[in-house]
Structure formats: C-alpha cells, structure tokens
Amino acid sequence: MKNTSLSAVSIAAVFLAWAVAAAPSALAADGYAVQMPLGLQAGALRTPADNPITKDKVELGKLLFFDTRLSKDGTINCATCHAPEFGFAEPRKVSTGIGGAKGGRNAPTVINSGFSFFQFWDGRAPRLEDQAKGPIANPIEMGHTLEGATKAVASVNSYKPYFKAAFGDEAVTMDRIAQAIASFERTVVSGNSAWDRYTAGHDKAALGDAAKRGLGLFEGKAKCSLCHVGFNLSDGIFHNLGVGMGAAEPDLGRFKVTGQEADKGAFKTPTLRDISKTGPYMHDGSQATLEEVVDFYNRGGEPNPTLDLKVVKLGLSTGEKADLVAFLKSLDGDWKFSRPVPLPK
Ligand code: HEC
Ligand code: HEC
After folding, report:
1. Gap from CA of 203 to ligand 2 centroid (Å)
2. Which of 18, 161, 170, 191 has its CA 20 to 30 A from that of 261?
3. Which ligand has the minimum distance to the alpha carbon of residue 299?
C-alpha cells in the first residue's frame, strides 16, 4: 500500500481539521438547503463554519462565476473552462486562458466539488474558498490581480444590492467574492443518474443489461471502485496511474505539494459523475474518449517507478470493455442549468 499517496496520519489530520472547521449539514442558517438529488449525501458537503450557504450568497456567486469582468481583459469567466454544456469542464485537452495562453492541465469538473477534501488535481487548495482566487490571479487563466478584479466588481453598481443581501453591506472584497463563488459551487451537484436510481432507488430497470454487467466489472474484475468509491465515485486522494509520466519533463502532480517521493505523478481521483460530457480525460487531457480510458486501465496504466499498486493489467475482453463504458455512461445526472444574464454596469 505504500504507493497510495496519503499517509493515514495526514488523512486523520485533514479529517480533524474539518471536524473543527466544517458544519456537517447542507442546511444553511437562512433555512436554505442545497437540493440534493438521489444518491448524494447532504451531510458530506464540506461547508466551512465561517461561510454557511445562504440563498443570497449562492445567487451572487452564480453571477460572479459567469462574469468576464473577473478577468483582466474582460474575455474570460470561470465558465470559459468550466462550461455547464460540457459538464462544468472543457472540451479541450488543456485550458486556454487570457490571450490564448495554454496551461498544462485539463480543467476538472466543478460538479460535486463541494464534497472534495482537496481542490485541484494536486490538491494544493483545501477549500473552494481558497481555490476560487487562484484562476483570477493566474497569468495564463484570467490574468488579473486580486486587487484589480475586486475593483472591477466594485465598480459595477448593479452588484451592490447583491453584496448587501449576501454579506450585510455593500463592501466588495476578494474574500467575499471567493465565499460567494464557493457557495454557488456547492450547489452544482449531480445525482439521480441511472446508477443512483438502480442502486439507491432500487429501480432494477434503471440500468440496461450492458451497464449492469459494467457495474459488476467496475466493482470487481476491473478494480475501478478501489479508487472511484462512494457516492461521488472518488476516494478523494492521490494516485499515480502513469498518465504523462513518459514525457521528458512529466508533471509530478501531488509531489509538487508534498515533496514526497511516493507522490511523484500522483493526481486526485476525480469524480466520474457526468463523465460522458467532460472529455477529454485525465489531468493532461491526453485521453480523448472513455474507450481510450478503459483501454489504458486494461493495459495496466503506464509503467513508472511510482505506479500505484492497485493499477494492474486487467485482461478485459472487447465485450467487457464495452460493458464498462456503458456503465460509465449511466453516471450522467438529470440536472438542468441555465446561465444567468450578466449584470449591467
Ligand atoms: C483558463 C481556464 C480556467 C478558468 C478561467 C478557470 N479555471 Fe478552474 N480550473 C482550470 C484548471 C486547468 C484546473 C485544474 C488546475 C490544477 O489542478 O492545477 C481548474 C481547477 C478548478 C477547480 C478544482 C476542481 C477539482 O476537482 O479539483 C475548481 C473548483 C475550479 N477550477 C473553479 C474555478 C472557478 C471558481 C473559476 C473562476 C473564478 C475558475 N475555475 C476559472 C481551468 C480554469
Ligand atoms: C489506483 C486508483 C484508481 C483506479 C483503480 C482507477 N482509477 Fe480512474 N482515476 C484515478 C485517478 C488518480 C485519475 C486521474 C489520473 C490523472 O489524471 O493522472 C483517474 C481518472 C479516471 C478517469 C478520467 C476522469 C476525468 O475527469 O478526466 C476515468 C474516466 C476513470 N478514471 C475511470 C476509471 C475506470 C473505468 C477504472 C477501472 C477500470 C478506474 N478509473 C480505475 C484513480 C483510479
């Protein structure tokens, strides 16, 4: 087990920190509750005690998520790379930010990110509140400064009543912007998929035969649920599958955060919800289709010195690979989303 990247001690530390900092319930102070579809656990939503979810914060955060004024040249918003139409991810290999600048990683989905212990592929941000400031000030994403973006939002008069409703007064600060965006993100949830209706809803007709066989493989011969486990299909920690490790200068992932040898090339296990919409796949977007992903696992990943011990050759037949893909496609939620109309100045 030594290649599983997070030690028991640090997991305990994380849980302890959250036990102190997190309100366990998705029920907010104002009685507002995130609508949890079938299959999700409301109590697992990670909401810090200093930023309880309220309806007004969610509403403000939704506007900010889609506001290009958070970027330096007014062309990029969060949804440029986390588009609802693509399962809150992007249809490109790696992100393209301000002025066409390319980053090195594929945008993960924002769906169900409120359940994660860590944000980013390498887990460098513990909370959504910390995460939200990252892209704004990233020179190849939104290219702004936190001060500049704060000023840009503060100069929009029509935001004032929204800040007042959400925070008690009209003051615009980056902390408030981040708190509102994080609150909105916690409402971007996906459940009630065919898999949920089959498993949690006991609707035996919800999955077709191929998907049913695929579920059996997912939890058995194909070993997927060793890491993609629980209602959000993620253990929330970091593993090396070898993706990109053949490159001249591979992205070392979690190693950049911990400096621990065993973390070289390890990335966070992503949720598989709405996976049919969020391709291309993996932290570098190197796998175009779910068929390619399944082939990759079937080969036993990409051999390298820190390959996770759970990644082994699977010996799946052509039919079994197709069944697994059918199961992955049963993980689409039934949510609908409409983009807000941007506020006028
Ligand atoms: C130019 C593209 C781009 C823009 C704009 C962008 N993101 Fe991202 N986002 C990414 C990429 C790429 C990652 C993964 C980066 C990494 O892991 O190092 C990411 C990661 C995330 C994550 C972590 C998800 C997870 O499962 O770990 C969240 C949440 C997120 N972004 C929210 C936002 C918000 C909120 C905004 C707007 C303030 C935003 N993003 C703007 C590309 C973008
Ligand atoms: C050892 C833990 C582990 C096992 C076992 C595992 N996965 Fe993964 N999975 C991960 C990690 C970690 C990533 C991200 C890796 C990266 O980008 O470098 C990932 C990524 C994925 C992705 C791409 C997700 C995205 O948003 O880009 C899919 C799809 C996927 N896995 C499906 C499967 C299937 C199907 C199986 C079983 C055949 C499986 N996984 C087995 C840990 C695992």
Report:
1. 27
2. 18
3. 2
pLDDT in the model for residue 232: 98
- Whole-number Å distance, alpha carbon 207 to ligand 1 midpoint, is 32
CA distances from 15 to 19, 118, 121, 262 (A): 6, 11, 19, 22
CA pair distance 219, 201, nearest whole angstrom: 19
66, 340 contact by CB (below 8 A): yes
CA distance 151 to 132: 17
Give 250-287 pLDDT, tens digit per residue: 999 999 999 999 999 999 999 999 999 999 999 999 99
The arithmetic mean of pLDDT across residues 55-61, rounded, is 98
9 pLDDT higher than 80: no
- At CA 270, angle to CA 99 and CA 81, rounded to 5? 20
For residue 223 and ligand 2, the question of a CB distance below 6 A is answered with yes
For residues 338-343, average pLDDT: 96
CA of 108 to the centre of ligand 1 (A): 7
Angle in degrees, CA 59, 25, 254, rounded to 5: 85
Confidence bin at 33 (pLDDT 50/70/90):
confident
Ligand 1 proximity of 107 Cβ (cutoff 6 Å): yes
Give yes or no for residue 83 CB within 6 A of ligand 1.
no
Position 102, amino acid = K
Our answer on whether the CB atom of 131 is closer than 6 Å to any ligand 2 atom is: no
311 in ligand 2 pocket by Cβ < 6 Å? Answer: yes
- Reported as a single tens digit per residue, the pLDDT across 145-176 is 999 999 999 999 999 999 999 999 999 999 99
Residues 6+ apart with CB under 8 A from 242: 265, 301, 302, 303, 304, 307, 311
Cα–ligand 2 centroid distance for 7 (angstroms): 20
Ligand 1 pocket, 325 CB below 6 A?
no
Q: What percent of the chain has pLDDT over 90?
A: 90
Six token digits for residue 151: 């000023």
Determine the distance separating the centroid of ligand 1 and the alpha carbon of 107, expressed in angstroms.
6
